[in-house]
Amino acid sequence: MTELHAFAEQNNLNVVETFIEKQSAKIPGRPIFNSMLNRIEQGEANGIVCWHPDRLARNSVDGGKIIYLLDCGRITALKFPQFWFEPTPQGKFMLSIPLYEKVRSYFKSQM
């Protein structure tokens, strides 16, 4: 967590609140994640700082919600210390690769 706060400070990002989710991102319905997205939808924040995209979502429902909020302009910035992202069609496609790679590998292991 210290690294993310340092990253936010180095990049002059205003952190409204820090959320720590302990549930796996493999299954939708994480209460803290959903609370964070609800606050973004209400306009309390417009971006997310996270270690890596796969920490946000490893299922298609949560990943789709993030992309949807990008499409509607509710999320204008996603910042990751180890991953570059711009909210363009190409950027959203590149974001979907780490998000959905986990989903794909999960289903592949179930076969």
Secondary-structure blueprint of this entry?
Layout: H1 2-10, H2 31-41, E1 47-49, H3 53-56, H4 60-71, E2 77-79, H5 89-110
Parallel strand pairs: 1-2
Please name the defining characteristics of this protein.
two-stranded parallel ribbon; 111 residues; 2 strands; Rossmann fold; 5 helices; mainly alpha
Polypeptide structure, described:
With 111 residues, the chain is mainly α. The chain has a single domain (2-110), classed as 3-Layer(aba) Sandwich (Rossmann fold). Helix content is 52%, strand content 5%. It has helices at 2-10, 31-41, 53-56, 60-71, 89-110, and strands at residues 47-49, 77-79. The protein has a two-stranded parallel sheet. Helix 4 (60-71) packs antiparallel against helix 5 (89-110). The protein is globular. The protein starts with a helix and ends with a helix. The model has no long low-confidence stretch (mean pLDDT 83).
CATH architecture: 3-Layer(aba) Sandwich
Number of H/I helices: 5
Structural class: mainly alpha
Query: What is the element string, with H for helices and E for strands?
Result: HHEHHEH
DSSP strand content: 5-15%
Q: Tell me, what is the CATH class?
A: Alpha Beta
Give the termini distance in whole angstroms.
36 Å
Main sheet attributes: strand count, strand direction, barrel closure: 2 strands, parallel
Mean of the pLDDT scores? 83
Shape: globular
Which range best describes the helical content: under 10%, 10-25%, 25-40%, 40-55%, 55-70% or over 70%? 40-55%
Strand adjacency order, main sheet = 1-2
